[in-house]
Amino acid sequence: MSDNAQPHVLIVDDEDMVITSIRAFLQLETEYSVHGYTDPKAASQHLETNPVDVVVSDYLMPGMTGLQLLAKAKEFQPEAARVLLTGHADKQSAIKAINDVGLYQYLEKPWDNSQLLLVINGAIERTQLLRQLRDKVNELDAAHGNLKDVQGRLLRAFL
């Protein structure tokens, strides 16, 4: 992704009001392209074919948990940052699962919009830096060979 490409944010929550609220806030505050899904399975299909910079997912949803969705996000787009929205009761389960899905951050509901914006901005910056690193390693690898192993070790340390 180039530096001037519009960042893509994917919001997944079974409550349409959450998606509407976050989308409206981000459209007011940013130039991000925001996609929202109430069905985590549909969101998973979106992740298979569309580049995303950050995925913000609810924890408890019917059909697929937020952690299952974020695991799919990690599989399909390992550089995309993953953010979990949790209710207070879900907090301990979310904390236990942070390493399983390489969570960038979690936020409790109800979230604070300024904190949400800071997290999403940081997540997008991280994703773009990881992609720039990947592109630079590929460029150097083409010129010098065998840097893929170094990149793999670096990415495993961060993802």
In total, the number of domains comes to: 1
Share of helix among residues?
55-70%
- The CATH homologous superfamily: Response regulator
The shape, in one word, is globular
**Biggest beta sheet summary:** 5 strands, parallel
Order of H and E elements: EHEHEHEHEHH
Q: What is the oligomer described by this structure?
A: single chain
The third-level CATH topology is: Rossmann fold
Spatial strand arrangement across the major sheet:
2-1-3-4-5
N- to C-terminal separation?
18 Å
Strands, count: 5
What is the average per-residue confidence, as pLDDT, rounded to a whole number?
A: 89
How would you portray this structure in words?
By secondary structure, the chain is an alpha/beta fold. The chain has a single domain (8-126), classed as Rossmann fold. Helices cover 56% and strands 16% of the residues. The protein is built from 6 helices and 5 strands; from the N terminus they run βαβαβαβαβαα. The chain has helices at 16-29, 40-49, 66-76, 91-101, 113-144, 148-158; strands at residues 8-12, 33-37, 54-58, 81-86, 105-108. Strands 2-1-3-4-5 form a 5-stranded parallel β-sheet, with helices on both faces. Helix 2 (40-49) runs parallel beside helix 3 (66-76) and helix 3 packs parallel to helix 4 (91-101). The protein starts with 7 loop residues before the first strand and ends with a helix. The mean pLDDT is 89.
